[in-house]
Specification:
Layout: H1 9-20, E1 31-37, H2 45-62, E2 69-75, H3 115-129, E3 135-138, H4 139-144, H5 149-157, H6 159-166, H7 172-177, E4 181-183, E5 198-200, E6 205-209, E7 215-219, E8 225-227, H8 229-240, E9 244-248, H9 252-264, E10 271-275, E11 278-279, H10 296-302, H11 305-313, E12 320-321, H12 327-341, H13 346-351, H14 353-357, H15 371-381, H16 386-396, H17 406-423, H18 434-448, H19 456-469, H20 476-487, H21 495-502, H22 504-515
Helix pairs in contact: 1-2, 5-8, 6-9, 8-9, 11-12, 15-17, 16-17, 18-22, 19-21
C-alpha cells in the first residue's frame, strides 16, 4: 500500500525523509536518525520519550523506503561537569573535578572508570530495557578518535562565519569572551571557557591564555578541544550526516542556529521535529531540579511500558500534564487501541498507535477487562495483593489465568498498587438523599432477584432504566450517586461492566451496606 497517504505523525515525518532522498540514496549508504543524551544526570522519562518517538519515525520510514537506517544515541560525555549532582554517593569526592570532562571525573558509584562511563552504562541499560535498536556513541570517543577532525578543521576555517551566527544571540559581556572552541587544558584537564588570541586555520590550531595566564597553542583535532554546545550540535549534524533529529520546544529557537552552523560547515541540516514539554499537576513546566513531575520508574510502578509509549505517541506537539492521575486513562486507551487493531484493515492498522508502539507487530488482546474496572474492583474489595482480584476475574472469565493472560495479570498488580497509593487515601463516602435511596433500593432488589444474562451491557441497560424511572436529570447524576455512595469516589466505571465483574449478588450486598451506612466495610 501507499504509506505516503497515512496521517499518523511518524509517517508524516518519515515522508519528509523519503522526499529528501527521492532522487538518490545518501552517499553514506543509510539514513541516520540521532538522539542526544546529557550524562550529567540519570536517563529519565524525557530520554525515553525522545528515543521512543524517534524510533517510531524510523520504523515508519522503513515501511516507505528500502534505504537502510541507523539510530545513533550520542552521549555528550566530554562536557565539563558544571555542578556536583545531588543524587550521587560521595558527592565530596567530585568537588575537586569541576569543569573536567565527565569521562575524566571519578565514578562515585565505584563501578566504572569515570562518572561519564558510569552514566553511559546506565543509559545503555535503560535503552536496552525497553528493547530499542540503536548504536551508542560517546562524544569523547568521537572527538578523540578523529571522527570529528575534518569538521573541526572546517569550523576553524569558518571561525568568523560561526562567530557571526553566534554573537547576536549573546549578551554584551559574553560576546567579549565567547569562542565556539573550548580547549582542554593540558595542565588541569579542564574544559576552558576562554577567548581565542589567535586562530590559525592553515596550521589547524588555536591560541589562548590558560587558567594560569600562560599562552597555549593547541590543535583543534584529536580531542584537544571541543565545541560549545550550540556549535557542537551543528557540527555533529555535518560531520555524521544526520538526517533526522527531534528536540524539545526549548530548543526551537536554537534549531535555526544549529542549521546555520551545519550549512556553514558544508553539511545539510537534518529534518527536524520539535515536541512540546510536559507539565506537572498544576500545569507548570516540569523541571528536573524541582522534581515536580513523574519519573519513568514511578510510571512503571503503576502501569506497563506500552501505556507510557502511547502517552508519548499521542499529540507530541501539544503540552500535556504528566502526573499520576493520567496513568489509568493512558492504560485503558492502550487496551482500547489494541482491541481495535485486530479488527481493522491494513490502512487503519498503520494509523493505530499500537502499530507504532510495537513496530508493526502488536500482541493479541487478552480478556476485555479495563484497568479502570480493576481499579474499581480494588476499591471495593481493598486487596493487599492481586490474587484477590483474580478471584473475581476467574469467575467472570473462567478461561483466563495469570499464565495465559500475562498483561491482565500485570494490570491486576498495578491496580492494587495504584489503589493503595492514590485511590484509598482520597476515598470519601457520602449518604444518599431520599431520591437516591429509593433508586438504590430498587437496584438492590433487582440484583438480588436477577435472572437475566450476566453481561455488562444487559446490566447497564437495567441500571440506566432505573435512573430514568427515578427522573435523574441529567442521568449522569444517577451514576455519580453510585460512585460517591458505593465507591467513595467522584468518578467510576460503567456500572454494568463493574457489576458483571464484581458479581451480581456481591453488588447487591454492597448497596445494602451503603444504605445501612456501612459502605466502607466491604
Amino acid at each position: 500500500m501507499d504509506s505516503s497517504s497515512l496521517k499518523a505523525w511518524p509517517f508524516q515525518e518519515a515522508a519528509k525523509l523519503v522526499a529528501r532522498y527521492k532522487d538518490a540514496p545518501p552517499e553514506k549508504g543509510y539514513v541516520l536518525f540521532e538522539t542526544g543524551y546529557g550524562p550529567s544526570g540519570l536517563p529519565h522519562i524525557g530520554t525515553f520519550g525522545e528515543v521512543a518517538r524517534t524510533s517510531m519515525v524510523r520504523h515508519a520510514f522503513t515501511k516507505m523506503s528500502d534505504i537502510p537506517t541507523k539510530l545513533f544515541c550520542i552521549s555528550d560525555d566530554m562536557d565539563g561537569m558544571r555542578k556536583v549532582p545531588d543524587n550521587v554517593p560521595q558527592p565530596e569526592m567530585l568537588a575537586g573535578y569541576m569543569d573536567m570532562p565527565l569521562t575524566k571525573v571519578p565514578d562515585p558509584f565505584g563501578t566504572h572508570e569515570s562518572y561519564g562511563h558510569h552514566m553511559n552504562a546506565r543509559l545503555r541499560a535503560f535503552l536496552d530495557r525497553f528493547g530499542f535498536e540503536y548504536e551508542f556513541k560517546s562524544a569523547t570517543d568521537l572527538y578523540t578518535s578523529g571522527a570529528f577532525d575534518a569538521a573541526l578543521l572546517a569550523a576553524l576555517k569558518r571561525f568568523d562565519a560561526i562567530m557571526k551566527i553566534m554573537l547576536p544571540t549573546l549578551g554584551e559581556e559574553r560576546q567579549k569572551t565567547y569562542s565556539p572552541f573550548l580547549p582542554i587544558s593540558p595542565k588541569s584537564g579542564k574544559v576552558l571557557y576562554v577567548p581565542m588570541k589567535k586562530v590559525d586555520a592553515e596550521a589547524g590550531t588555536i591560541t589562548f591564555d590558560d587558567e594560569e595566564g600562560e599562552e597555549i597553542t593547541l590543535p583543534v583535532t584529536g580531542g584537544h578541544c571541543k565545541l560549545q554546545w550550540k556549535p557542537d550540535f551543528g557540527m555533529r549534524w555535518a560531520a555524521l550526516g544526520v538526517d533526522f533529529e527531534m528536540y524539545g520546544k526549548d530548543h526551537l529557537v536554537n534549531g535555526k542556529l544549529y542549521s546555520a552552523i551545519c550549512k556553514t560547515l558544508g553539511g545539510t541540516p537534518p529534518e527536524q521535529f520539535n515536541y512540546e514539554l510536559f507539565l506537572d499537576e498544576k500545569g507548570e513546566k516540569i523541571s528536573k531540579s524541582k522534581g515536580n513531575g513523574i519519573s519513568i520508574e514511578q510510571w512503571l510502578t503503576y502501569a506497563p511500558t506500552e501505556s507510557l509509549a502511547l502517552y508519548m505517541f499521542q499529540q507530541p506537539q501539544r503540552a500535556k500534564r504528566l502526573y499520576f492521575d493520567v496513568i489509568p486513562k493512558a492504560v485503558d486507551e492502550y487496551l482500547t487501541f489494541l482491541e481495535k487493531y485486530h479488527s481493522q484493515g491494513e490502512p487503519e492498522r498503520m494509523e493505530n498507535p499500537v502499530w507504532h508502539i510495537h513496530n508493526g507487530n502488536p500482541p493479541k488482546p487478552e480478556v476485555n477487562i479495563s484497568f479502570g474496572l480493576l481499579l474499581n474492583l480494588a476499591s471495593v474489595c481493598n486487596p493487599e495483593d492481586k490474587s484477590v482480584l483474580w478471584g473475581f476475574i476467574s469467575r467472570y472469565a473462567p478461561q483466563a489465568t495469570p499464565e495465559n493472560s500475562p498483561m491482565l495479570d500485570q494490570l491486576a498488580g498495578y491496580a492494587v498498587r495504584y489503589y493503595h497509593d492514590f485511590v484509598k487515601p482520597t476515598k470519601a463516602y457520602r449518604a444518599p438523599d431520599e431520591k437516591e435511596r429509593a433508586a438504590l433500593t430498587e437496584l438492590q432488589t433487582l440484583l438480588e432477584n436477577w435472572t437475566g444474562p450476566v453481561d455488562g451491557e444487559t446490566i447497564q441497560t437495567a441500571i440506566y432504566d432505573i435512573g430514568m424511572r427515578h427522573q435523574f436529570d441529567p442521568l449522569r447524576a444517577w451514576f455519580g450517586c453510585m460512585y460517591e455512595v458505593l465507591l467513595g469516589q467522584s468518578q467510576g466505571p460503567r456500572m454494568g461492566s463493574f457489576t458483571a465483574l464484581y458479581g451480581i449478588q456481591e453488588t447487591a450486598a454492597l448497596i445494602a451496606r451503603a444504605l445501612a451506612g456501612r459502605a466502607e466495610a466491604a
